[in-house]
Design goal:
538 residues, mainly beta, Immunoglobulin-like, 4 domains, 5-stranded antiparallel sheet, 1 helix
Length: 538
């Protein structure tokens, strides 16, 4: 008997194995797939008379990436993000084992969500930030795209003061997150998003403490000082916003003001006068809102019992019962100049003054009923720093400025009729640099309270303040209310136009200052070039 008896030949075994399937289409499956865990679905059709019990699809470029199942399609997972793959399929059965491989599929690029970004730094942005509306800037590096372009990044962190997560989104680094509670310490993470979804979060940043201006103090208490022509004013220290309070600025309703490092002050006042008091707090980030007014206090008059009851000169004075000059004085019953004075019943200049019933210039002034122009306040916050001559970067807050002070400006070609508001030029036709910097002098200042400002990279402006910007082929002045991060601003530090990082509308009770300079109609804050005076609207 043959030694091969009872054994099936290899040829017969091959005859029973499944035929090679017909490959179909390979399709990338990127949506929601984690980075470096891409997937592809592969379709195929069984062929030949020998049925397969199962089919296996594998990646030609990495045969460890496989998927097995009883029918088409099959999905292969674990694919590296951004990598190209083709696929083959074969069938198996119990009778013949593994069948032949199909031909290769079309090529796909495996895509996933992006790789997590890497944070390089986080920093507090405290300057002029309102109390409990702090800001943090996050710098980061992008990870791999996951095979599809990254469309946005999001930075976030938890705020224990507000018991919520604050976040900000944008197309690139850095991102600035606003709305933080003053004094809170937090860490930040960043994610990246593409058309497939959002990455895992980055490793958390180092801790950052968020600071702002101080909280608005509560109304002070005011009382008169016994036997002195003085008022005593005191208040409670407010929350410092995360940075030490360096100064309190107080004002009285009769125009007096001053600074102190303590929470009380004694004010010399005129005996018998009544006034109220307000106070604000300052720290390195700026100034708080102004407190509500104290109760009215009447300054103590000198005691009537400290001297001889009617004075040193007798019951009615040294000069007799009604004075040295007779019962009504030396000049007659109503005075030397007649019953109503030397100049007639209403004065030398007529019933309502020398210039007519309402003054020399007519009922409402020299320029007509309401004046030649109506003015729209073009103003910046009292806390915004403006550049002054001196060492590079020398500055004063707008609230410190006085008429006659010199500011730094830029020599720009004048438009027709000095119409700066409608001035617009082709960016390629104008060359601006630090060499164009000149000096200009303040000729007038106007101060009024305001409750809404536009925050542009640390400077606060009224909504109608005009700022020099550049966008593509156009350079012009636009109002703060129109500005966004698509514009560039002219930086005195670089002498060129730079990107804007953050624009935000902020509610905050501060004075706004309108500044008029000559001979140039602009001046520099520490961050940008701005228009200098009210806009005359016809």
């Amino acid at each position: 008997m043959s030694k091969q008896a009872g054994r099936m030949s290899q040829g017969a075994n091959d005859f029973l194995a499944p035929y090679a399937p017909t490959i179909g289409t390979a399709t990338d499956v990127g949506t929601g797939r984690a980075y470096n865990n891409g997937a592809a679905t592969v379709t195929f059709t069984a062929s030949g008379p020998n049925a397969a019990d199962s089919f296996t699809v594998y990646a030609v470029e990495d045969t460890s990436k496989t998927a097995t199942g009883s029918s088409s399609p099959l999905t292969v997972t674990g694919l590296a993000s951004g990598t190209n793959y083709t696929f083959k399929v074969y069938g198996t059965n119990t009778a013949g084992g593994k069948g032949s491989d199909s031909s290769a599929s079309n090529q796909i690029t495996a895509t996933t969500v992006p790789q997590a970004p890497s944070i390089s730094s986080v920093s507090d942005v405290g300057t002029n930030r309102p109390f409990n509306n702090g800001a943090v800037t996050v710098n980061f590096s992008a990870g791999a795209t996951g095979g599809k372009s990254i469309t946005s990044y999001s930075a976030s962190g938890y705020c224990s003061v507000h018991a919520t997560t604050h976040s900000a989104s944008g197309g690139s680094s850095p991102l600035t997150i606003t709305g933080w509670g003053s004094g809170v310490s937090t860490t930040i993470t960043v994610t990246a998003t593409n058309d497939n979804g959002t990455s895992t979060a980055s490793t958390a940043s180092t801790s950052v403490t968020v600071t702002t201006v101080p909280n608005t103090p509560s109304a002070p208490s005011a009382s008169t000082v016994a036997n002195q022509a003085q008022d005593s004013v005191s208040w409670s220290a407010p929350d410092n916003g995360g940075k030490a309070i360096t100064n309190y600025y107080w004002t009285s309703s009769d125009g007096k003001s001053g600074n102190t490092g303590s929470t009380s002050v004694t004010v010399n006042q005129e005996a018998g006068t009544a006034q109220t008091y307000n106070v604000r707090a300052d720290n390195a980030n700026g100034v708080s809102g102004t407190s509500a007014s104290s109760g009215s206090v009447t300054t103590f008059s000198f005691t009537p019992f400290g001297f001889t009851p009617f004075g040193a000169f007798g019951a009615f004075g040294a000069f007799g019962a009604f004075g040295a000059f007779g019962a009504f004085g030396a000049f007659g019953a109503f005075g030397a100049f007649g019953a109503f004075g030397a100049f007639g019943a209403f004065g030398a200049f007529g019933a309502f003054g020398a210039f007519g019933a309402f003054g020399a210039f007519g009922a409402f002034g020299a320029f007509g009923a309401f004046g030649a122009y109506a003015f729209s306040a073009v103003s910046l916050a009292a806390t915004t720093q403006v550049l002054v001559p001196g060492a590079p970067g020398s500055s004063k807050t707008a609230g410190e400025l006085q008429v006659g002070d010199t500011l730094l400006a830029l020599d720009i070609p004048n438009p027709a009729n000095s119409d700066w508001i409608n001035w617009e030029v082709d960016s390629s036709s104008i060359s601006l640099s630090s060499e164009n910097m000149v000096e200009t002098q303040i000729v007038s200042l106007t101060t009024v309270p305001e409750s809404e400002f536009i925050y542009v990279d640390g400077d606060l402006f009224s909504t109608t303040h005009y700022i020099l910007v550049q966008k593509g082929a156009v350079t012009k002045f636009i109002s703060a209310a129109e500005i966004d991060t698509s514009y560039k601003i002219f930086s005195p530090e670089t002498g060129s136009f730079v990107d804007i990082t953050l624009v935000e509308t902020i509610s905050m009770d501060l004075n706004k200052i309108s500044i008029n300079c000559e001979p140039y109609d602009n001046f520099f804050t520490t961050k940008m070039l701005v228009f200098d005076r009210p806009d005359p609207l016809q």
